[in-house]
User: Fold this.
Amino acid sequence: MTEAIPDEAKVWDALRAVSDPEVGENLVDLGLVYRVHCAPARVDVDLTMTSAACPMAGAIAEEAEEAIRVACPEAREVQVAVVYDPPWTPERMSETARRRFGW
Assistant:
């Protein structure tokens, strides 16, 4: 029996449901998601924060992991890593988010 590969679109939708509590915008539109990789029964995600000093990094990563687990129950393993290379810049934000913040 082959294991199901989680649907990458569902992962992205799950990450859109997770907001940075300091700015009230979702992780995807903020440009905080650097990588999503789906493999049989596994999802790996690399996130960053707007600042390496973000005190909420761990909580945001945990919330993202839980959202992915709910959206993709076939993923027995979910790994969400917080990375800081390359550093985040406002150019990574969606056009909608940039307009919202007046950038």
About this structure: The longest strand covers residues 33-39. The beta strands are 19-20, 25-26, 33-39, 42-47, 77-82. The two ends are 50 Å apart (CA to CA).
